[in-house]
Design brief:
Elements: H1 2-25, H2 35-52, H3 59-83
Helix pairs in contact: 1-2, 1-3
């Protein structure tokens, strides 16, 4: 139980941040006009990821899935940064 809680907390935070950054990147003007609404959405998104960590059968799956999602999301952010 504590393993899934830590996976959701420690890996959900950067995943929520990078998902919001990717969504802001898709907007015109790099999403500068939407920064405050994105910050308001950040906490519920992080909470959703933390709650979602309990849906996994065990802690190892939660760590692997959330870790893989982080790697993919950060790779997408890196590609969008270097593509422009």
């Amino acid at each position: 139980m504590i393993g899934r809680c830590l996976a959701g907390t420690l890996l959900g935070f950067p995943l929520a941040a990078v998902l919001l950054r990717l969504s802001l990147r898709a907007l015109p003007n790099d999403g500068a006009d939407w920064l405050i609404p994105a910050l308001i959405v950040f906490f519920p998104l992080w909470m959703t990821l933390m709650i979602g960590a309990y849906a996994f059968r065990n802690a190892a799956r939660a760590w692997f899935t959330l870790g893989s999602a982080n790697v993919v999301a950060y790779a997408m952010l890196w590609m969008t940064h270097h593509a422009a």
